């Protein structure tokens, strides 16, 4: 009796089996090519960097869609040279667009305004309702209800402190006491003590900044101010170093200006989302 040939599974069945057995896709991960990866210094540096990572904010009214807005570049009132070198009003507006979108506000990106952006921004900064209405009649601008801007009013280092220890003075004293002991053993012990104590160097310094941000909500049609708010945050930057008998270690870190500005924008958007949606 002849055997019947085995039936081939339909092509679709094979596809279904393959899809069901395929692993769920996860976010991409990346390696660390640093030669110190996994070391003690790497761990300390990464622990500090983890505190500065971007963290999304759970906006209280995120589930409710807000009115259409445009975020225009605000003003930077601070004269601090360090801050002015790192930031422009466009940088801050970029953060503003990101967070307003995360809070479920429909945001018309400034890039969609093209060459109209400068004129549009000037109309609102000057409070010219006629010019504003002219722009609001164009294309996607018709749906805009509010214009939002974020201004930096303060960015300054308000406090600094440092302390340290230099063992050379005590080392010299130990060496002198050994020399005056009158014995060869005392002199030798004094020399060893002088070298050991004199090699000790420690230092620690901390600086604290205060950065303040104001937000404004402007009626897109009348250019009248609807609301405003202000918030401040402290930024601490520190460094520590030590050296004993030729063995040294150092560590420095803190939240960067970029991170501070983004956090201030998040606090401001949280305020807008909770009060003016």
CATH class: Alpha Beta
Structural class: alpha+beta
Portion in beta strands: 25-35%
Low-confidence stretches: 15-19
Largest sheet features? 5 strands, mixed
- Figure out the total of helices: 9
Summarize the helix and strand pattern as letters.
Answer: HHEHHHHEHHEEEH
The count of strands amounts to 5
The proportion of residues forming helix, as a percent range, comes to 25-40%
Say which CATH homologous superfamily is assigned.
ABC-type transport auxiliary lipoprotein component
Task: Supply Rg.
Answer: 31 Å
CATH architecture: 3-Layer(aba) Sandwich
* Strand order, sheet with most strands: 1-2-3-4-5
In round numbers, the mean pLDDT is: 73
The domain tally reads 1
| First and last CA, distance | 80 Å
Quote the CATH topology: Rossmann fold
Which term fits the overall shape? elongated
Word description of this protein:
With 277 residues, the protein is an alpha+beta fold. It has one domain: Rossmann fold (3-Layer(aba) Sandwich), CATH 3.40.50. It contains nine helices and five strands, in the order H-H-E-H-H-H-H-E-H-H-E-E-E-H. The chain has helices spanning 11-21, 40-50, 81-86, 89-102, 116-125, 129-136, 168-179, 184-198, 257-275; strands at 69-76, 146-166, 201-219, 225-244, 247-254. It has a five-stranded mixed beta sheet with strand order 1-2-3-4-5. A hairpin with a 5-residue loop joins strand 3 (201-219) and strand 4. Helix 4 packs across helix 9, helix 5 (116-125) runs antiparallel to helix 6 (129-136) and helix 7 (168-179) runs antiparallel to helix 8. The longest helix is centred in the last third of the chain and has 19 residues, at 257-275. It is elongated, with a radius of gyration of 31 Å. The termini are far apart.
